[in-house]
Amino acid sequence: MTNIGKLIKLMGPYKKDLVIACLLVAIETGFELIIPTMMADLIDNGIANADTAYMLGKGMQMAICALLALATGLTYARFAARAAYGWGAAIREKEYENLQAFAFSNIDKYETSSLITRLTSDITVMQNTINNGLRPLVRAPVMLVLGLLFSFSMNGELAITFIILTPILGIVLFTIVRRVAPMYSIMQKTVDDLNSVVEENLRAIRTVKAFVRGEYEEEKFGKVNEKLCQTASRTNSMAVLNMPLFQAVMYTCVLSLMFFGGLMILNAKLQVGELTGFLSYVMQVLNSMMMLSNVFLLLSRSLASAARISSVLDEVPDMKETEAPITKMKSWDIEFRNASFRYSSDASVDTLSHINIKIPQGHTIGILGGTGSGKSSLVQLIDRLYDAEEGEVLIGGINVKDYSLYTLRENVAMVLQKNLLFSGTIRDNLKWGNKDASDEELWEAVDKAGAGEFLRHFPLGLDTDLGQGGVNVSGGQKQRLCIARALLKNPKIIIFDDSTSAVDSATETLIRNNLHKLKGITKIFIAQRISSVIDADTIIVLHDGKVAETGTHSSLMAENGIYKEIYESQMKGGVL
């Protein structure tokens, strides 16, 4: 319940709607509870005495009460819907806001499919708790208290019979909820697994079709879908026991009351109208308790979802700013000072170990190394996508942790190894670099990135729609658009993480020559091909997370080390 209490605090202005909805339910219940008393009077005084005027008067009063109950019920629905969906929107917004503040290390703790489920399905469960559960949750206690008062006022002996059977309903409810509650957590986790399979398949649909693995994917989906079906079936088969068990107790109670009530009528201790009104109260109270039992099942499921949502909201971002962060970068030389890094605290070996590098402002740096040598990890420490576990990373002599994240990332542009474009037009994507860029600035960046040659052949030019994830352009075209987007930031430091791997050598040479013309910008190239870094001011060779060699092309060739081996292997393979 603690987790639900935290989420209730996010309701904000919708708390007023929730309170009004609760009051309307209480008023509606009050109108409904008056009707059985009027019915008893109608039977015992109107029908028994054949008093038509009395019957019409009581009937009119009952009709007014029913209409008022209907009106308050309809009004309640409006306020309850506003409270439920407004609350859901507030939770979703807060959860998404927290996700944006996460460091990569925080995001790595969750599967993408699980985060999607927590933003959608779990929040829907919370909304349904208010939509379907608020009315019986308020109505049942009011009905129970008032129903008992009215029933005792009508006949104390029959009321005792009713009270004796009530604890049985509580035992039934407790037993079912205790068994079902853990099963809801398992079911939501299975929904995560299902979403994971669907997301992976859709993201890699071209690969699936290229390798004719459709049947395999169908089989994989079928297994997780069947698992969800079985989990949901087991959970709901236990939950639905609630209804028949409650009905069994309810009808046992009704039969007992009719039996004892009939004996009392025969002994002239009770009138027929009183028994009719009493049974109406009993049915209303028992039905409200049956609905309340369903609310407890909803609450059991919402507790599981609330815990999953709260884990995201309570996750403390690993990336924090200092109390008074620096908001201006005066110089942009880079230094790695005995920096070490590992992705997980449980890892037995550091991804990067004791890195000591100095990169002067405005220089061009090339980074080479085999797969897993730590090239991408190294540059991700510069703009704090990750933080060094030991040592320091400095820009302009200042630890990157002392800069505000906005200042740091606004001055550092990175073309990631995995190029990503968003749905929308080319113009929309390029303006991620500079939202106020003019068409002239856009075309200038596009030409520097070598994208102008193909972009000018598109009928719509900058307004060409890319489709989701940029599916309407090739890998090489996507890389060049990502480079153009980074250039539009006018950064102080720009990092290219193997970002020309999908373009031909001639286009790569054109891009490299254009980038070399950029003055005053520190440029870092990560590459597999030596041709991409051969003209760099300094070339750094990484091996097993350590700096193996540093120097220019000519000095490294003279050392007869790893760099020369790579060069000779690529020369023989015709890579250069």
What are the defining features of this structure?
576 residues, alpha/beta, ABC transporter transmembrane region fold, Rossmann fold, six-stranded mixed sheet, 20 helices, 10 strands, elongated
Q: Sheet bearing the most strands, described?
A: 6 strands, mixed
Spans of at least 5 consecutive residues whose pLDDT stays below 50 are none
Task: Work out the radius of gyration.
Answer: 35 Å
Q: Tell me the name of the CATH homologous superfamily of the largest domain.
A: ABC transporter type 1, transmembrane domain
Chain-averaged pLDDT = 83
Strand order of the largest sheet: 6-7-8-3-9-10
Number of strands: 10
Question: What does the overall shape look like?
Answer: elongated
Could you please say which CATH topology of the largest domain applies here?
A: ABC transporter transmembrane region fold
- Beta-strand percent range: 5-15%
Number of domains: 2
| The CATH C-level class name of the largest domain | Mainly Alpha
What structural class do the secondary elements suggest? alpha/beta
The CATH architecture of the largest domain would be: Up-down Bundle
Distance between the termini: 64 Å
Helix content: 55-70%
Enumerate how many helices there are, as a single number: 20
Q: What is the succession of H and E elements?
A: HHHHHHHHHHHEEEHEEHEHHHHEHEEEHH
